[in-house]
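User: Hello! My lab partner asked me to get a predicted holo structure for this protein. The small molecule is adenosine-5'-triphosphate, SMILES included with the sequence. Please write out the structure tokens.
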Amino acid sequence: MKVIAISNQKGGVGKTTTAVNLGAALAGFGHRVLVLDVDPQGNGSTHVGVDIYGLEKSMYDVLTDDVPLTAIIRPTGLEGLHCAPSNIDLSGAEVEMVSAVGRETILKEKLEELQEKGHEGVFFDYVLLDCAPSLGLLSVNALAAADEIIVPMQTEFFALQGISKLMEVVGIVRKRINPRLEIRGIVACRMDTRTRLALEVIEDIQSHFPNLLFEARIRQNVKLAEAPSFGQTIFEYDPESNGAQDYRALAAEYLGIQLED
Amino acid sequence: MKVIAISNQKGGVGKTTTAVNLGAALAGFGHRVLVLDVDPQGNGSTHVGVDIYGLEKSMYDVLTDDVPLTAIIRPTGLEGLHCAPSNIDLSGAEVEMVSAVGRETILKEKLEELQEKGHEGVFFDYVLLDCAPSLGLLSVNALAAADEIIVPMQTEFFALQGISKLMEVVGIVRKRINPRLEIRGIVACRMDTRTRLALEVIEDIQSHFPNLLFEARIRQNVKLAEAPSFGQTIFEYDPESNGAQDYRALAAEYLGIQLED
Ligand SMILES: Nc1ncnc2c1ncn2[C@@H]1O[C@H](COP(=O)(O)OP(=O)(O)OP(=O)(O)O)[C@@H](O)[C@H]1O
Ligand SMILES: Nc1ncnc2c1ncn2[C@@H]1O[C@H](COP(=O)(O)OP(=O)(O)OP(=O)(O)O)[C@@H](O)[C@H]1O
Ligand SMILES: [Mg+2]
Ligand SMILES: [Mg+2]
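Assistant: Hello! Below are the structure tokens for the protein in complex with adenosine-5'-triphosphate.
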């Protein structure tokens, strides 16, 4: 079971869109995928059709009340894709977790239990952690629990800002808690491919982080922005769209699969 | 001197782009405008050409070391537009301010001093506060110091999320610290006018907040994203662009001026 944190403390860069649609694309290649929402905004959960206002138990209970992940995991409308949802209750979690012993590895523990026992007979191949735009205790839990990080970045002027801060936190987590954590790659998101600005930002990212940028770029596509309002991944909402093609290409690249064009 | 907080705790919705370009448009109508950066990301400062890595003194010193605003204010490339810059040092400010007496009204005090004494003979008509994507002590200082708030919102599915939280904080600030604070309006930003999603979100905003949505909508325009990389407002970078037209229309609406088309 590989745990991938989708992480960038900058707001609105494409974390949720990537966590959900890369997850869905991996499921489309036959894998069993869990989208685990660690953001009190609950966008990832809403995106896959969960009614976050009607949740009896959520990630808040898992992290503060010793509820096992299997108690909150549910299927989505897409074959092979499950969700462990969050809602605004989770914003209370950091305050409660702050004085707990081993407060940074609570999520790690819960994921290890899931890896061992499975969920109703399902053993997940991939768990994608949809992180909040912050570097607080929830995000540290995500980094401490992850095997790898994928960093979505907008192809706009301020894109690289804050990345050194993220790298700093990753370095500390790797040193003190989770030595196997590695940055798997950077995904260019919301790319307006016709503009010179996007290409300049791409060059900029490549020069700062050679070999980290995925070949697959996620272009600006309104279908990706519409899908969450129907509680669907892009593969249910519009499987022929550029958005679906791009996330499928990203998943193939991640898996090392050659896609015929 | 009217103080306007450009505020929304959601990341990447257009606060900085609005603080800088609405400010520039108001300067274009003959007013003296100060863009005051209260975001440790320092994007507003960079946007108007400030080298935030070379700053000797910044908002950090103003808020934690009793430095007057006039000591850090500088002109920008645009006539009538000044800047009070920030950089990453400001992220240390909240921790230092937390134990100060009257910690929520430090900025208010500094702005009152500026209103009284001016800056090198200049008395500002408008001060636009570029807020960080959070509801922490810095943002509370901004709300406590402001006469009004303008809320930029993306015209996308999750746009309204978090607004009730913002309104809650505004209510508390109004009750306990700043009774004159009012929400002047909501600006639809980064609008992709060809899509039905944008129009649905607009209707949604109008039904939740009748009479708060400005008529002027800021359309998606790559020129607005390019301008900051040159350290310029849209009016210096591309005064004929849609971005410039939209911010000019917003300023005119704000001022109650009729623009001939
Ligand atoms: N490639 C794309 N094309 C069009 N719209 C996109 C694309 N990627 C993301 N969006 C839209 O941009 C907005 C922000 O994206 P998203 O929610 O994925 O970012 P995020 O990093 O998770 O934000 P947050 O920091 O608030 O969690 C959403 O409304 C989303 O639908
Ligand atoms: N109307 C627009 N058209 C095109 N790009 C835009 C528009 N408005 C903003 N952008 C771009 O979107 C990104 C986010 O905008 P901006 O920085 O203004 O948001 P913000 O709310 O200040 O973000 P943060 O929460 O990080 O402070 C920037 O790269 C900006 O250049
Ligand atoms: Mg998100
Ligand atoms: Mg900003």
